[in-house]
Design brief:
It is a single chain. By secondary structure, this protein is of the alpha+beta class. It folds into 2 domains: 237 residues, no CATH class; 135 residues. Helix 6 crosses helix 7, helix 7 packs antiparallel against helix 8 and helix 7 crosses helix 15. The radius of gyration is 21 Å and the shape is globular. It starts with 16 loop residues before the first helix and ends with a helix.
């Protein structure tokens, strides 16, 4: 029995025949071809958005929210443009969807999280994606100097390529966000349970399925099967780009029968591997590899399983976890600047990995030699403008 099924594709392509076949321009920084602009459009009357009015409203709130929702077509457009420009590209382990609001803080650490889109492909995809996020965030906050912020981001990337083991200072916003944490185990478990949405009877897994799942989780994690006894579970609907994904939260036994060491386990179905210029594996291995290589701190209880032909990956939640909100959490441009440098370093450290030897040194040297602020700044400027335009058209049509 499959735990549940998501709806169809979340984005309805508003492609006009005369526009859809228009070729993408080859030069980095040139405006988007009409077909690529059309690919970023979203129909607010699409079945997935009609079925989720809260998500439909969230996508309309601002260009950055819209940008988060259209990661798939955004990547496809960027792939076409990058493959057409004739410049050298180097395949690396990609985060796949880096943006400012992926920057997360826990008791243990900080940095980009949510590796659902982790894959392999040209390094420039992550660079332009995050640089576009910086531009949209600055625009929403009314701040100037986006090109300088992109420069800071790329400087952090270059620093990591030169010396990946010398981590930058922790951004000051991290301490402020940690100061909000409530370090009470019972409260943390209660908050997580509050996010568990009951499944309809025809979608809920049977006791037999839960027991089989526990055995699989134990096999891949090395924990005793008794640790995965399910105490409560439900669907999980957080996110914007991932709002339509099949996701669950389980409260499991943990190491002992005591409720104090219960574990909240998030289980997500693995999205199909993207095509175009990226070529990650179809199963959970690409996510697990991406998280282990790119994250500053490794996930706990992380692993992957297959249930009735569907692949899932899982990891434990920490008691306190917060993602940066560009409207609520950024006190000033200085906060965003420090985040930009930190994320640049994280990507520069993780793209080629920390493995030693001549191969790693050659890849780092090649990435450093190919790094162009002009290209990333120009391409992110074009993509930010096109995304904002697509958001404006969505907003005009949204109820």
């Amino acid at each position: 029995m499959v735990l549940g099924r998501r709806c169809g594709p979340p984005v309805f392509w508003l492609l006009v025949a005369a526009l859809a076949m228009a070729p993408a321009p080859a030069g980095t920084g040139e405006g988007l071809a009409p077909g690529d602009r059309a690919a970023l459009l979203v129909d607010p009357a699409s079945p997935a958005l009609v079925a989720d009015p809260a998500l439909r409203h969230r996508v309309a709130e601002g260009p950055h929210d819209f940008f988060r929702y259209v990661n798939g077509p955004f990547r496809e457009v960027l792939c076409r443009r990058q493959m057409a420009n004739g410049r050298p590209h180097f395949d690396v382990t990609l985060h796949g969807d880096p943006h400012v609001e992926q920057y997360s803080v826990t008791e243990e650490g900080r940095g980009l999280a949510d590796f659902d889109e982790a894959t392999v492909g040209p390094h420039v995809l992550d660079l332009v994606r995050f640089a576009t996020s910086l531009r949209l965030a600055m625009s929403e906050r009314g701040w100037d100097g986006a090109d300088e912020l992109v420069r800071v981001f790329l400087a952090g990337y270059a620093d990591a390529l030169r010396n990946p083991r010398h981590l930058p200072p922790e951004p000051r916003i991290v301490a402020r966000l940690r100061a909000r944490f409530v370090r009470n185990r019972n409260d943390a478990l209660a908050r997580a349970e509050g996010l568990m949405e009951p499944l309809p009877p025809d979608k809920a897994p049977s006791d037999e399925t839960l027991a089989h799942t526990a055995r699989l989780l134990a096999q891949v994690s090395g924990w005793p099967e008794a640790s995965f006894k399910v105490k409560r579970f439900g669907a999980q609907r957080m996110g914007i780009g991932s709002a339509g994904d099949e996701k669950y939260l389980f409260r499991i036994e943990g190491k002992t029968p005591s409720p104090q060491d219960d574990v909240i386990l998030e289980v997500k179905e693995v999205r199909p591997a993207a095509g175009g210029c990226v070529h990650g594996e179809a199963g959970p291995d690409r996510i697990l590899k991406g998280s282990s290589q790119l994250a500053y701190q490794a996930f706990q209880y992380a692993g992957g399983i297959t249930l009735e032909g569907h692949s899932y990956w899982f990891h434990a939640w920490t008691d306190n976890y917060v993602e940066v909100d560009i409207r609520r959490d950024l006190a000033s441009l200085a906060d965003l600047t420090e985040i930009a440098r930190d994320v640049g370093f994280q990507l520069g450290r993780g793209h080629p990995g920390l493995r030693g030897g001549k191969e790693s040194k050659r890849l780092r040297a090649a990435l450093l030699a190919s790094l162009s602020q002009e290209d990333v700044a120009g391409e992110s400027r074009v993509m930010a403008e096109a995304t904002t335009e697509a958001w404006q058209r969505y907003r005009q049509r949204a109820p």
